[in-house]
Amino acid sequence: MGKHPLNLALRFLLELAGVAVFAIWGWHWGEGWWRILLAVIVPVFFATLWAVFAVNEDPGRSGKTVVPIPGVLCLVMELAFFGLATLALFNLEYRTMGIVFAVVVLFHYAISYDRMVWMLRH
Predict the structure, then answer these.
(1) Cβ-contact 48, 19 below 8 angstroms
(2) Triad 106, 115, 66: Cα angle to 5°
(3) Which of 47, 55, 76, 108 is least buried, going by the fewest C-beta atoms within 10 A?
(4) pTM of the model as a whole
């Protein structure tokens, strides 16, 4: 189920939403030039980590990576990304949106159990 096109589309939308949350969070907590800088740097930082580090031949991604990492580390990194995005929503006082985001992320990982098992083995 982890490679199903609808699940991959959901995953992509969750990734985009997470990056957007980090941009909004950066904008909210900065002032003046810092506001603009944080709204750009924070999401670029997380998007770069997401794009650079991955497991070789990951069935939930293109299969290619710049820096290969073990599956367990990749899974921890993904969960940290989504967890921090959820915490940012709560920090911004978007509690309902934070709950919905967290539930959708958990749903995604629940139906991607085959990918998680694969990652834990690689």
Answers:
(1) no
(2) 105
(3) 76
(4) 0.88
